[in-house]
C-alpha cells in the first residue's frame, strides 16, 4: 500500500500540497487528476522520496520513508518504477542499454542474464526489434514504451507514471494506456498523474481530483461523473482536463 498521511508542501508562499491524505491499495490503479501546476507531479516525487514533505508522512508498505537516509531510500526505490513524462531515456545509450540500466545498477546478474531480461522487458512493450537502436531513432510513443520497459526492469511492485499521454497522439496514447492496464492486471500497483480524462477513465480503478493543493473529490469514474460539484463536473466532461 502507498499512503500519504496529511502531507503538505510549499514552495515559498505557494502551498502546492495542503494536508493531502491518500490510501492507495496494493494492486490497484489510482489516478490523480488536476490541471497543470496543481501538485500532481509533486505528489509523485514525494512517494519516491525525491522530495520531503513540510508536514505529514509518506508510507510505502507501512514504512515511513521520511527518516530514511540515502541507502534506505535506494532500497525502497528498487521496488518502485518511475515512468517520466518525457520518457527521460539516456541519449548516449541504446534502447537495450536503457532497459538494462537498473539491472546493472541494482543486481549482480551476469551480462548474459541482463541482456536476456532487458530483451524480455522490451518484448513486453513491443520493442524487441529496437534493442540496438538509439533513442533518437524512436518515435515519441516508442520512447514511452522503452521508458516503461526500463521502469519495469526490476519487476517493481509499484509503478509511478507522470502524464503518460503527454505529447502523444490519441491512438498512441491509448496504446500506452493498454500497456499500463496490463501491468495492473499483472499485480503492479499504479499511481498515475494526468489531466487527460480519457486516459484516466481507461486506466483508473479510482480517481481523485487535486485542486489548489487539496483533494476535492475521490471515487470511481462513474462516481465522479455523478458528483454535483461544478469543478468536478467541468473536469470530468472535458477531454483534456484543461
The major β-sheet equals:
6 strands, mixed
Number of strands: 10
Helix content: 25-40%
Rg from Cα: 18 Å
Sheet-strand content, in percent, reads: 25-35%
**Broad structural category:** alpha/beta
Q: Name the helix and strand elements from N-terminus to C-terminus, one letter apiece.
A: EEEHEEHEHHHEHEHEEHH
Task: Please state the oligomeric state of the protein chains shown.
Answer: single chain
**Uncertain stretches:** none
Strand order, main sheet: write it out: 6-7-8-3-9-10
Taken from the alpha-carbon principal axes, the silhouette is globular
Q: Report the span from N to C terminus.
A: 30 Å
The helix count comes to: 9
Which whole number gives the mean pLDDT? 92
Walk me through the structure.
The chain is globular and about 55 Å long. It has a domain of 64 residues. It is 37% helix and 25% strand. It is an alpha/beta fold. Strands 6-7-8-3-9-10 form a 6-stranded mixed beta sheet, sandwiched between helices. It has a 4-stranded antiparallel beta sheet with strand order 2-1-4-5.
Please tag this protein with its features.
242 residues; alpha/beta; six-stranded mixed sheet; four-stranded antiparallel sheet; 9 helices; 37% helix
Gist?
By secondary structure, the chain is of the alpha/beta class.
